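Why does this matter for the project? Reviewers at the last site visit asked to see concrete outputs rather than summary tables. In response, this paragraph embeds two records directly. Each consists of the residue sequence and, immediately after it, the corresponding structure tokens. Nothing has been edited or filtered.
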Amino acid sequence: MSQVCYVSGVEIQCIGHFKLLFSLLRVDGCARLQLHALEVISSVTCNQECVNDIAASNVLPFLLLLIYSLPQCRQLILETLHPLMSNTSLLKEAINKGGLIYLLDMFCNSTNPTLREQTAELFAKILSDKLVGPKVRIIVAKFLPAIFMDAMRESPEASVHMFEGSHENPELVWNDEAREKVSESVRKMAQSFSYSQRDNPDARWSIPESFAVVYTDVQGELIIGGVFLRIFIANPSWVLRRPKEFITELLEKWSQLVALPNPNGEVLEAITCAITSFFAAQSAMLDQVPQLGHLPKVFKAMTSRNDAVPKTALQIVQQLANSEVSNLVEKVSNFVEQVSNLVEQVSNLMEQVSNLVEQVSNLVEQVRNLVEQVSNLVEQVSNLVEQVSSLVEQVSNLMEKVRNRIEQVWNLLEQLRNLVEHVRNLVEQALKTEMVQFLVRLLEMGLEAQESPAATKAQVVKALKAMQKSLKFGDTVSAILDKYPIWAEYKDQKHDLFLSDRPTAGYLQGPATAGYLTSGATSTNSMPSVPPPM
């Protein structure tokens, strides 16, 4: 048994053995065996193949009888019946084998609220069946007012509270006396049939067609469509559950009465009053009157020789007209209100459009200012481009001049070196004019623009070293040079190899002559020291 209950897929092995399993439910006096058998049956109902096999086995009466032989397991029995009632064959078998009267007994007489709610849930499931549900509703309506069945489908818990309460409204007159009569009648019928079924499991349950539980004193009460007309006429604004069905049955009953040669005057007057009260309270139903097909009968009744009949017909037509006018006035009022709301909406819309136009105007003004600013900016950019073009041209000219000046640096440096070597007072003038610092900065610049940077640097170094040889200002020159780190890279190097042997333009060749600047001999060809051979 534990494998069937807890191992998925094993339940299919029970197919073909349900007659044996259900027969164990009849072993009275062995409650534990009955409980275990019920647990197994309950666990296999989740499998549709097992449910179909149970339906083919015709064993449902054994489960229904367990409701009275094992009352402590009624909750588990309901849980077992719930999936079984999804099968139409089992549902029909339950109706024929007393399932409805047993469920009614638990709903009306059980002291367990939870059990009664579960019973109402099962009733709701049965009533929702499209094939069998309408028949079940007719049967249950012989014991309970129809409103209880609607409550079961909407809220099982509310249906239990409704059964236990007292009510008096157009659709339900229910009190302690009515509840006791219904409960007692259901209890006796359920117990009587259970005894018969215990002796004969194939016994069929049925009730006479004319049977109806007198659940309240309704003598003199006229009930149509499940509505007490006396209470409805006193309270026509009551919200009915099925207004269309009620007015349809009401007009049909009126048509039947006026067709009789001598209708009951009190009944005809009550029905007419109910019709006029209904349309006075529920004018929205006027649109459906033509579809019901009773208007021709109302006008035809005006020709009746019975004075009471035309009178009631005129009352109905007058109420329909008044209600129609009232309905029309209400519609006009609603239309006027809608037009007023529409005008207000249009006014708000126009205001929004005005604000939008103003915003667009401001935006256009901003765009115009922006375009003007952009135009000014473009003009400024154009002027700037012209200035930059002019500046580039000036820089190009300047670079050309600088290039020409740099080419003259060699000649200047060579002349400076010769002047330093031959003019004693030149070192003092060089110190005053910070020429020493200027020459060192030339070394730092690199002089890459020169045709021969190394030779130019050599001329600078020789000029600086010539200034260091000055007896009077040599130390001052050396002190200035030592402040520059780059001088350490040049002061101990020999630079004769970097000097060109070309004559320096602008100077006379030959030995120095007083009053003239001359260039020393630069030729590497010296005179021979010995006479040529003989």
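We now turn to the second protein, recorded in exactly the same manner.
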Amino acid sequence: SISSKLYKNGFEDIHSHAFNGTKLNQLILKDNKNLRRIHNDALRGATGPDVLDISSTALESLPSYGLEAIQVLNATSSYSLKRLPPLDKFSSLLEAVLTYPSHCCAFRNIRTEKQNLLLSIFDNFSKECESTMRKPSHEMLDDSVERNTHPFAADDQSSPYIYSTVFDDSEMAGFDFEYDFCQPKVLTCTPEPDAFNPCEDILGYSFLRVLIWFINILAIAGNFTVLLVLLTSHYKLTVPRFLMCNLSFADFCMGLYLLLIAAVDAQTSGQYYNHAIDWQTGSGCSTAGFFTVFASELSVYTLTVITLERWHTITYAMQLDRKLRLRHAVPIMLGGWLFSIGIAALPLLGVSSYMKVSICLPMDIETGLSQAYILLILVLNVVAFVVICACYIKIYIAVQNPELVAANKDTKVAKRMAVLIFTDFTCMAPISFFAISAAFKVPLITVTNSKILLVLFYPVNSCANPFLYAIFTKAFRRDFFLLLSKLGCCKSRAELYRMNYFSAYNSNCKNGGTATAPSKASQAFLLLSALEK
């Protein structure tokens, strides 16, 4: 056998049957910076190699033939080698030194399967031993005669027990009892996967794989419906409608992020180790990360503006000159869009990174700047939640006034506010708590378990907002049925909503023209209508 050491050559590919007729012990191809391809039949006609070194090359794939004899594979600094050939090709591999930790997950699974098979055979062996030892000696002899074997050796040179009395030859094929059971081969692979990229699929748990489809479809369908109805309505674009459009678009983007994650997980299920590098370092993960941070920050910002607008409307209900106009809301939301885009773009510019984990969240806190970035986002979200809670408490105190609103209306408004605050708290609290601890490098939850938060808590607002802020309101239902009437459906229901709207409008105009001061009933109407927008 020979050792072929082809260091630092200028060749770019290795042709078919390049080593025909040779018995290779080692094939060293390292430091060939331009080597991009080894033909699938390059090792055909050769014996071996036992050792293959392709470190510091530009290879994008390994040949499909001739890998069965390899015991040591060295592929360090082979950054273009992002996918491995079918793992059954590495039937003799004992040591692998690779570039990407995710590839070691594949070999870890192989090792586990081999060990499980050995343990299964050993368990069967123990049971058969017990059963055989309980038999009388003449039965053991009869059994052995039938199998053309002997339970005990005829001379001192033979093993005292022939294992074929317990197993068929097919069961013991390829196994040496003393070596495989007492000193089993253990494949070692480096670098080992870290805590941020454990050996699992993108979503980890199978129940999350089902839930994420239901949640992302709900978020996309709900918010798309709200956008469609509000943008096609022939009624005047008011400030609440304008803000609701922004909120629905942000939550729609969150649904797109979840859809992208779910689709890639379904596509790479069971073989994520072969797709991890392409996904996490490619444009797909960067796009998903940008979508989720942009959507999350724009949603939180818009929710805060909507809450402040409701509080302002109720506080200054009778002062029309202080009413928030569309010309005020547009620059406010423009600032929110610029802020959200800027925050989402920072990881693309090197502040933290979307490539750290498979779910494409900015979890990189290696530098002080990245750590400050994560803390800034979390602190702003906590401040926004406090502002929302404070505003709704003030709104409740205002609406609670018995001189303004009847008791049954008071209870209805209180329940509505409780639901709004609860959904915000459910979404923000768990994420913020664990993320802040992780930002200080004291993680209280693993990446695997954080995926439960990603699916069950992170998108709560995106699913609930279209219902709480739009679909469950009377104004939206009116616009919805009016839109359906244009398509030839629910015309009678739409006409009823249209008549009720004009009746209420004319009644308010008459009351406004005759009254010299706002009545208690009109004050109550304004307070409740602010919550119904």
